[in-house]
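Anyone? Bumping this.
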Amino acid sequence: MNSQIKKGILDLCVLALLEKGDSYGYDLAGNLARKVEVADGTVYPILRKLASEGVVSTYLQESQNGPPRKYYHLTEAGRNKLNADRDEWLKFCGEVNDILSKETGGKADE
Amino acid sequence: MNKTEYVTKLTNELGHMPYGDVKDIIQSIEEHFDEGISEGRSEDEIAASLGDPKELAAEFKDGVKFKQIMKKRKMSDNFKGPDGRGRIFVIVFNAFVGIECWLILLFAIIAAFCCLAADLAFIGLIVAGLITGVLTEFIVPFIFLILTMICVAVFLVALLILGIKYYAKGLKSYIRWNKNVWNYGLGED
């Protein structure tokens, strides 16, 4: 997919992953890269940006093996943003699909 | 690429980001490596899946740019006409400190240029003297003198290159800072 389009929508994907529960960088990177074709590193600049906007907060938690992990938590503002952006995105997708799908495209030609 | 190489490359690519930000970023990337290693993945494999450090650094820098834009927007939201104190500060500061400092540095660079020119001229004179046979005595000391002068010339060239580079860079950010104070006043928020 075009990287510009992808970039804009990845913030939303990260927020959606955090909606399921708090998580740490490595876990989020894996979850994101498994579903969308991006490098594992991509998630970190996004997390930083989201944290600076106040839509996610961070805290440290001990892990069983090794040093404490930095966990990310979706704030109330983040939840609101996620819901608003998700609705907008789904609506937009629906509209684009209508235009792109072959059936309606064919009908319009006739 | 192993962990150390990746982290070094990323640090270099991040350039002159504030130290705290770089530290924070590097910490999260090191954490990523450690998690992967504890899962039994190799450092090379983790580095490859993280993506090109240059591109990653660019993405981090984009984030900073974004923050700066937001800050500027916030500033212009609170903007209630030009801040008189900021303008007076810029004028007074430049009149008594700013311009003087930059002029002194400029003279230092010009002086270094003159030294270099004199040094090269001196070398040229001695070499000419040796070749044309005007200088017949003390040939060995003169050769040593030339070698010393060449070392001085190399040192001056390096100094000038670095000096001019940082002078231009510094002057650019100094002007940017002045503009900021001029337009938005001294307030930090």
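Late reply, but here is one note on the structure posted above: Chain A has one domain: 3-109.
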